[in-house]
Each structure stands twice: as C-alpha cells, then as structure tokens.
Amino acid sequence: MNTTPKYSFVLPAFNEDENVAIMTERLLTIAEKLDGAVEILWVNDGSTDGTATQLDRLTQDHDAVRALHFSRNFGHMAALCAGLEGARASHAVITLDADGQHPPEMIPEMIRHWKDGADIVQCIRQQASERSLIKKATSGGFYKIFNLLADTDIPEGAADFRLMSREVVDALNTLPERVRFVRGLVHWVGFHQLLMPYEEEKRLTGTTKYSMRHMLSFALNGITSFSIRPLRLSFVLSLLVIGLIALYSAYVLVAMVSGKYISPGWTSLVFVVLFLGAAQLLVIGIASEYLARLYVEQKRRPVYILRKPISRREEQ
C-alpha cells in the first residue's frame, strides 16, 4: 500500500486467532464510511496459537491490513507502543482491543469529535453488568488510588479505546521511558481531550488475558510511573513511628521517675517490635518498587523486538 493512510486503527493481539478476522472485517466496513484511506495495524504480542497465521493471511488478502509480530510476549503496553510507533496515519490514530469489547462502530463518531477540535477522544467504559463484583471493585479502586497519589488524573473507566491526533502520537513516541503506562502518558502530554462514554460489549470469543497478577502489575506500574507520593508517605510514616517511640519512651521515663510500677510483661515490647517491623517492611517495599524501575530503565533494553517484517506483501 503506497498511499499514506489518513487514519490508522491499532490493535494489540495475544492469542486472538478466532477474533482477528472478525474484527478486521468490521473495521474494513467502518473504513468504507470514512473520508480518507485507512490502515489496520495489528500487533501480534507473541501469540502461541494461530494468530500469526491468521494475520499473515489477512495482510495478503487486504492491502489495508498490516501486521507486526513480536519475538515473544512483551505485554499489552509494549504492543500498544509498537502500534503507535508503527502507525503511518497522517491525521489520527485509533487504538482498540482485539476481542470486540471496544465497539469499532463508534469510530466515525470519534472522528467527528476530532474534526470538531478534540486532539484526544478518550472513551470511558460504563459499568457493565457482566463484569464480576471483584473486577468492578478492583478497577474502581485502582482509579481512586491512582488519582489520589499521582500528579496526573485519569477518568475512572478510561480504557485503551481512544483516538489521538498525529500530533499527540508523535509526542508520545518521543517519550524515553521503557516501562510505560500508556493510559497515564496520554493524559500527561496534555492537548485538548474529550471524554466519550461507551457500553462495553461481550468478548467475541475466548476469555480475558488479564489475570489478577497482570492487573496488580498494571496498577503498580501506573502508580510508580506517575507519583513519588508513596516514597514521601513512607518518609512520613517513618517520622510518625519515631514520634510514637519518643512518646512511649517519655512515658516510661516519667513513670520510672515518679515511682510508678511498670509491669514487666512482654505485651508492650512485642507491640513495639511488630509495629517497627511492619513500618520498616512497608518502607523497604515501596523503595524497592522504585529501585526496580530504575534498574529496568538504566539497562535501556528495547520495549519490544520484532520477529518478522511488517507483511510479506511489502517484501515483494
């Protein structure tokens, strides 16, 4: 495809072999309604099923379809970043998931908002009844904690379903960090943003790839990427512990001077030891998270590694 597309649709995919063809057809249908050329850029995040084969077939069948293949699974954020770096759109890039939960039929409306002046059209997920209570609680809790601690606020329900102008994408691509929390970075770069609600649809097929472990890692990356307040809170906690110890010591000294009997039991001693130990472990744990980020960043390894060319058609 020699023509520079006006719009790019970027979709990370991990083990979505049953969904990529369906989503591609839906996106091609949407593309026919738009006012310019479109490319559909799939990012295969090291899938172990037939996703790579399906994508290679789609690139052969449709000029508008391109595919990036990772050498292994680098994670959703890395795949999203690869898509933004590889997108060739001259005007706007739309990111969405491969499982069908982000309805592509909303794209024309997103583009209308962009034409009206929005640099970023951020889709906000409305609470879906199909989501478990645990999923709803953890998701809502994450946004509340993040916005409390971080210097950048993210609207609750903000998903990786958004439109970004070419200017916004170029700004994101210049950011140097390797451990990336794209949802936070999109809001950090600024620009005129419009929030657009959407109803989350059911997955086309399969199950979610986000386990509780992935969600916890996602939350820690988000908070440590955009806030140093946990470090400051740990320092405040240390001062609080020192103050309590000082008060307790003063009480013991006054009691001894006044001749008051102090029971030689272990209760108070055990309480102080446990409290100090818990405080120290908390401070060490928080500091370790930031130290781990510094360790990863200073190695300067690439965010992802590609396994094969963008498409076989381009080799011909």
Mean pLDDT: 77
Q: Ends: how far apart?
A: 12 Å
Form type? elongated
Shape-level CATH architecture of the largest domain: Alpha-Beta Complex
What's the CATH H-level superfamily name of the largest domain?
Spore Coat Polysaccharide Biosynthesis Protein SpsA, Chain A
Q: How many domains, as an integer?
A: 2
Tell me the series of helices and strands, N- to C-terminal. EHEHEHEHEHEHHEHHHE
CATH topology of the largest domain: Spore Coat Polysaccharide Biosynthesis Protein SpsA, Chain A
Summing up helix and strand content along with how strands pair, one would put the structural category as: alpha/beta
Q: How many beta-strand runs?
A: 8
Q: Quick one: biggest sheet?
A: 8 strands, mixed
Poorly predicted ranges: 310-316
What portion of residues is helical? Answer: 40-55%
Gist of the model:
With 316 residues, the protein is an alpha/beta fold.
Could you characterize what this model shows?
The protein has helices spanning 20-31, 51-61, 76-86, 107-115, 133-149, 166-173, 182-188, 212-226, 229-257, 267-299; strands spanning 7-13, 38-44, 65-70, 92-95, 120-126, 158-165, 193-199, 306-308. It starts with 6 loop residues before the first strand and ends in an 8-residue tail after the last strand. Helix content is 48%, strand content 16%. The radius of gyration is 25 Å and the shape is elongated. Helix 5 packs parallel to helix 8. The chain has 316 residues and is an alpha/beta fold. The chain has an eight-stranded mixed sheet, sandwiched between helices. The longest helix has 33 residues, at 267-299. It folds into two domains: 7-207 and 301-315, Spore Coat Polysaccharide Biosynthesis Protein SpsA, Chain A, CATH 3.90.550.10; 229-299.
